[in-house]
Amino acid sequence: MGNYIFLILVLASFFGLGKLFAKAGIESWKAYLPIYNFFELSKLLKKPWWWCLIMIVPGVNIIMYGVYGFNTARAFNKPSNNDLWFASLLPYIFFVKLGMDDTAKFVGLDKFKNEPSKAIKNWVDPIIFAVIAASIIRGYFIEAFTIPTSSLEKSLMVGDFLFVNKFAYGPKIPQTPLSFPFAHHTLPLAGTKSYLEWIKLPYFRLPGFGKVENNDIVVFNYPDGDSVLINMQDISYYNAIRIVGNYMRQEDRQSGDTSKSEKYYNHKAWEYFQDPNNMNILNGNKVGKIVGRPVDKREHYVKRCVAIAGDKLEIKNGEVYINDKVQAMPEKAQHYYYVKTTNRLFGDPIKMKNGRSSLSNLKLLDEYDIYASEVELAAESKDTTVYKLNMPVGVSEEIKKLPGVVSVTRKVDHAGEREITIFPHNSAYAWNNDNFGPLVIPKAGMTIPIDTHNVCLYEKEMNTYDDGIHQVNVSGGQVLYDGKPITSYTFKQDYYFMMGDNRHNSADSRSWGMVPFDHIVGSPFFVWLSVKYEENNPVSGASFLKSFFKNSKEGKYRWDRFLCYVDDGKLHSIKIPFIATILAIWGLTKWNRRRKEKLEKSKS
Fold first, then answer.
1. 369: phi > 0 → left, psi -120 to 50 → alpha, else beta; which?
2. How many other C-beta atoms can be found within 10 angstroms of the C-beta atom of residue 410?
3. Are 381 and 516 members of one domain?
4. Predicted TM-score of the model (pTM)
């Protein structure tokens, strides 16, 4: 409905613009040609012709409408504060009002050439056009991004501040253009939605430089983020339902009731989450509000694409196979290891400031950059202690050499051991992190046989991602698609399987399934800053000021990761050429200023 209202407002503004053109001696029909009408308006207002090109850009064009409205009000001799506010905030209606106003006469903007208002000249104009320029750059070219989780450790790390190249795979047109500038989905401080869904644009992507390939590191909109628990945003809403449903099931089993299905308990948990006043047993807070988010406002995730559209993926004992060929493990991939010692090498279990569990020898963990939040005491006996530590293979080899270490063994989830949080969340598929698949990744135009057994693998693609909302269910031994029996399905877009290099501590496609192409955002290409967080590195990540005089290992700042471009998850420093360029620009600017000063003196 919002789209139709917006279309009516735009057409109304064209009508009003036609009336204004007639007042200014321009043929009225030119007001009804999109973009060209604003080209003519720019000429009339003696503004840059390229202003009209900004009107092509969804979202930003709404701000630009207000800029045109403000200048048009002045040009037609309506410079009062009330008129200027009206013109800036509701230009669509103002154009009609102004066009029908017999007292509105075109006088031009010459009297505002030397801006009488210092506030407008020095603040309003620069800020508005800075917002417009930054919004275009952020929306279509480059966006700043922070690595939020450790899923790609140690390739891209928690605390890496980087830029994402949106032209890598083609920038997407914003689907919810009514959005507060620079806020993704939540307004800072206020904590409320930063966007309105009154206007919704269809999915469209501009051409990009390439396509998603195997092993690319990709930024995308989190597919499971279409529904979010506001009071618990660090876990998938759907996984929260499955976990609570499993708790309910275990409670009934302990009392002897084994008659009800997993589906029953998941529905019961879903009903429980619908009451915002219920207590969330996962974090001890109230369930709170559940919000839905459109695709372009879902959380940004970054993972490695291990399988592209058309691939067959399988994971056997932690090794990834694509089309039956084993894939090389990423150089800095992390796994959980069981470290058996004859002493209390890593200390005893403790609670950190943030409430998470860890081990007391934080100094030793920090020395090897093993995150304090990803360790635990796994077992102990009279003579030995077993710790579970998350680390790359290179670090595990160093740990083997420490005094008292008996063995270091990589943790592997055994085949046939089903994990309820692992896709496809169906008891017929006993998959886990280390033994998963086989799974065929759909490709646009690919037809896959669908039956009552495998429909759970592709259900969300069929009923949500692929072609709008549809009903997919099983009835009478048949799969029904919008009520009609089907035995196969032809997919309409490409899909991808994303995994983190932190193989045992990553919420990825093993948890929530495949990523549709319309969720792909871009590729990380430049890390400009990298810092440690105290929750992961309680020793070296604690101090802001003292760390300025410490190296990357001992301090908060990872100096070696500053000003680096990203290639296949590897960082390459450009500090020297970057600093040299800055100094060259500074020197050139200073020389040019002095040259102009000398020329002015010689003329005088």
1. left
2. 15
3. no
4. 0.88
Please give the distance of CA 328 from its chain centroid, rounded to a whole number: 27
> What is the C-alpha to C-alpha distance for residues 142 and 171, in angstroms, rounded to an integer?
9
255 and 156 share one domain: yes
The confidence score (pLDDT) of residue 184 equals 86
Say if CB 451 and CB 479 are below 8 A apart.
yes
Instruction: For residue 427, give both structure tokens.
Output: 């008891």
- Give pLDDT tens digits for 293-306: 999 999 999 999 99
79, pLDDT greater than 80: yes
Domain CATH code at residue 277: 2.10.109.10
Residue the block writes with tokens 């590897």: 570
Signed CA dihedral, 159, 163, 167, 171: sign only:
positive
Structure token digits, residue 25:
């001696």
Question: Residue for token digits 């410079």?
Answer: 79
Please check whether residue 280 is in contact with residue 286, taking contact to mean a CB–CB distance below 8 angstroms. yes
Q: Taking CA 499 as the corner, what is the angle to CA 537 and CA 465, rounded to the nearest 5 degrees?
A: 125
**DSSP-assigned letter for residue 316:** E
Model confidence at 118: pLDDT above 70? no
- Count of positions (residues) in the chain: 604
User: What distance in Å separates the CA atoms of residue 402 and residue 598, rounded to the nearest whole number?
Assistant: 69
HEC string of 71-102?
HHHHHCCCCCHHHHHHHHHCHHHHHHHHHHCC
CA dist., res. 523 & res. 219, Å (int): 6
Residue 471's domain spans which residues?
A: 445-492
